[in-house]
Specification:
With about 400 residues, the chain is of the alpha/beta class. It has 14 helices and 15 strands.
Length: about 400
């Protein structure tokens, strides 16, 4: 029996004349996600994309799992192909959905008839197939409001498709349809979640991580790479920079007032990230900050941080509490990695009494003791670049 995967587009269906462009990008992203599983063809039809394995040897369980992580897909389902003949539709339904129907207590039938020349109208298909199913599964009852399984028949131009329940997709917009942005990635819980959330809105990610050896270890850096690999399952490949930050942090420690350490450190991170982001043609920065979570994330501190750059700064976690962020980190499988005990440079030289109501002129005065140009130049020039897939 021939089996395919049906993709239901998400927000793409709301697009106008450029809808085809969004669909083409979605297909490109699906091809990338399936590249290690097999060769597939993609056929667009209305708000649905049909995915078919070329040689029939690919594991469709693996394919479906990969596609559930592709942004832009609202729902997907495996489906069997039937001839445009009511008897063949019944035969395929019985063969393809037998196990699912045996395990269910209630069902309903939905029909979609794109080919209006098909002799059965939509209500006729539903009545015929529903009666056929009841005649073979005496334990089943019809429930049109909340069935355990919905049997759907789609009659298209060439074939009919028979499928069971939909599988929820990742939603959002296809990655790269809304430009590029650089995410400041640490080893914590928040920044991988922020990266995921912005990729879901169609943004292609570049990642920037700050390391401070010997205060931070190689294990801390490896932890970040593991987190990015998990995010890349959704976002696609992530160009990543590792920036040596030791010299800057030591200079801040030696020359700046202690209560301003964290804010000045964050400002330097933003300045360096903006330069690297422009090298990668990014139009914004992304951080995992949430208002009031720590001293550097008060509304006053965030204002001082933003003033260091000219790019927009996206903070998708800004209004979330820790419980919400943790729940999302568990969903995308980054939580267990994030809580590994390898600290990043944000924990180095933490002041005992950080400034929570900082004013920008005071911060700029405090950091004027630093030789900013050469410090930033060396950090940018020595940044290590890799691509995480």
């Amino acid at each position: 029996m021939k089996e395919i995967i049906l993709i239901k587009n998400g927000e793409i269906v709301l697009k106008g004349l450029n809808r085809n462009t969004f669909e083409d990008i979605l297909i490109k992203n699906m091809k990338r996600a399936l590249s290690d599983i097999g060769e597939f063809t993609f056929t667009k039809s209305q708000s649905t994309i049909t995915v078919e394995n070329v040689d029939g040897n690919a594991d469709l369980d693996d394919a479906v799992d990969a596609l559930t992580k592709v942004f832009g897909i609202a729902a997907l389902s495996r489906a069997a192909v039937a001839e445009k003949d009511m008897d063949d539709i019944k035969r395929v339904t019985l063969e393809y959905l037998s196990e699912a129907l045996k395990d269910a207590k209630t069902f309903k039938v939905e029909a979609k008839r794109s080919d209006k020349s098909f002799p059965y109208k939509t209500p006729d298909i539903q009545r015929e197939l529903g009666g056929f199913i009841l005649s073979h599964f005496n334990h089943l009852k019809v429930d049109v409001h909340n069935p355990e399984i919905t049997v759907t028949v789609e009659v298209r131009e060439v074939y009919a498709f028979v499928r069971g329940n939909n599988i929820k997709g990742a939603g959002g917009m296809p990655v790269s349809t809304n430009g590029r942005a650089a995410v400041l990635i640490s080893g914590g819980i928040d920044s991988p979640v922020a990266a995921y959330m912005m990729a879901k809105r169609g943004i292609e990610l570049v990642a920037i991580h700050f390391a401070s050896p010997p205060y931070t270890t190689e294990l801390a850096e490896e932890k970040v790479m593991q987190l990015l690999k998990k995010v890349a399952k959704y976002s696609g490949p992530i160009t990543t920079y590792v920036v040596g930050f030791t010299e800057i942090q030591e200079q801040i420690r030696d020359k700046c007032p202690e209560d301003y350490f964290t804010i000045i450190m964050r400002r330097y991170m933003m300045k360096i990230s903006e330069i690297l982001a422009k090298h990668q043609h990014c139009s914004a920065l992304i951080t995992g900050e949430s208002v009031g979570q720590v001293a550097s994330q008060t509304i006053y501190a965030l204002g001082c941080t933003d003033a260091a750059v000219n790019m927009p700064v996206f903070r998708p976690c800004i209004g979330m509490d820790k419980v919400e962020i943790v729940a999302l980190s568990r969903k995308i499988d980054t939580f267990e990695t994030s809580i590994q005990p390898y600290e990043d440079c944000c924990t180095v030289f933490t002041p005992k009494h950080p400034k929570t109501r900082a004013k920008l002129p005071e911060v700029e005065e405090a950091e004027s003791a630093l030789d900013e140009g050469p410090l930033i130049q060396r950090a940018v020039e020595n940044a290590r670049r890799t691509v995480i897939k």
